[in-house]
Amino acid sequence: MSESQLWDDVDDYFTTHLAPEDEVLRAAVRDSEAAGLPPIAVTAPQGKFLQLLAQIQGARTILELGTLGGYSTIWLARALPADGHLVSLEYSPVHAEVANRNIARAGLDKIVEVRVGAALESLPQLADENPPPFDLVFIDADKGNNPHYVEWALKLTSAGSLIVVDNVVRGGRVADPGNPASDVQGTRTALELIGQHPRLSATAVQTVGGKGYDGFALARVLP
After folding, report:
1. Phi and psi at residue 130, in whole multiples of 5°?
2. pLDDT of 155
3. Rounded to the nearest 5 degrees, what angle is found at the Cα of 162, between the Cα atoms of 201 and 192?
4. DSSP letter assigned to residue 41
5. Alpha carbon 109 to chain centroid distance?
6. E strands within 103-168?
7. 164: which strand partners?
8. pLDDT tens across 124-173, in order?
9. How does pLDDT run across 169-199, given as a tens digit for each residue?
10. Angle at which helices 93-105 and 23-34 pack, to 10 degrees?
């Protein structure tokens, strides 16, 4: 058995016993695949992890950067109270259309708002609306802009908020300072910004699973 197959099998086991998908989540995956969206959504155990973080946080407001087909959005939104609010930013109108259908099927369209456009254009507009600080920010968009996304997350949160940055390992390439790829350099700059910032306490964790070898960073906003 290959190493990657073993990772898949373990993820399947975890999903079955700890993070079972219901028909709404399975349909979100099917519809995303049918629409030709890239298969880069979080896995079910990762989605459940995000949901648990939001629940532990007692989150009432969540900001997501990178909606894709809405799979992670559904996991996160299910952690919110009935009067909670999740804003998800998505660059692609096609992806947003698929996501909105999946979110509506989940019965979450009253608390989830998908905004279409480049995140670095949507974020200043969102800030101009002076929303309450977001309790959790999940960053899972184009990796080259991760430093900018972290800076905006700081502007839109307050002490005690959580910031999660996904896909920070880049298959191990993040450890190579000479790698010129924008996803690697953007991720390295974001991690170093987080590590040096006086208002953030953070760590990063390497993971393996159904989506291969990667990891995430988790930061708490300090007073």
Report:
1. 55, 55
2. 98
3. 40
4. S
5. 18
6. 112-116, 134-139, 157-166
7. 138, 218
8. 999 999 999 999 999 999 999 999 999 999 999 999 999 999 999 999 99
9. 999 999 999 999 999 999 999 999 999 999 9
10. 160
User: What residues contact residue 167 under an 8 Å CB cut-off, 6+ apart?
Assistant: 140, 143, 187, 214, 215, 216
Token output for 77: 């939104």
Residue 114 contacts by C-beta under 8 Å, 6 or more apart in sequence? 67, 70, 73, 88, 89, 90, 96, 99, 100, 103
Give the Å distances, CA to CA, from 182 to 70, 146, 211, 213: 25, 10, 20, 19
Structure tokens at 180: 């010129």
Q: Distance between CA atoms of 211 and 10, rounded to whole angstroms?
A: 12
Return the higher-pLDDT residue of 221 and 3: 221
Question: What confidence score (pLDDT) does residue 1 get?
Answer: 80
User: Could you tell me the two tokens for 84?
Assistant: 């909670």
CB atoms within 10 A of CB 109: 15
Q: How confident is the model at residue 18 (pLDDT cuts 50, 70, 90)?
A: very high
Strand, helix or coil at 7? helix
**CB neighbourhood size of 15 (10 A):** 18
Nearest to 219 by CA among 161, 166, 148, 174: 161
The DSSP bridge partners found for residue 115 are: 89
